[in-house]
Amino acid sequence: MLLKYRAYKIYTYNPDNINFIKPKNYDKLNWQDFLPKNENIKDIFEQVIKKNKKNKAVLSINKYGWVFNDFMPLGSK
Questions:
Q1: Which of 23, 37, 38, 50 has the highest count of CB atoms within 10 angstroms of its CB?
Q2: Where are the domains of the chain?
Q3: What is the 3-state secondary structure (H, E, C) of 9-38?
Q4: Could you tell me the pTM of the whole model?
Q5: Residue 58: what pLDDT?
Q6: Cβ–Cβ < 8 Å for 38, 44
Q7: What percent of the chain is predicted at pLDDT more than 70?
């Protein structure tokens, strides 16, 4: 319920129409700051892919593609 309340406070996300009550220690919790917004997430991912060629996620991207290339294997275009 704590995380649902947190999502509700940040995004006003409440798909179940729950009548939220703030959890007792909510204000005492130290929440992590949001990451800075990046306008071109594709470039950031491509930099990570180039640096981590043996990473299992990168190997999967190389074989099966990803959202930025319509899920085509890299180098197949």
A1: 23
A2: 1-34, 37-77
A3: HHHCCCCCCCCCCCCCCHHHCCCCCCCCCC
A4: 0.48
A5: 87
A6: yes
A7: 96
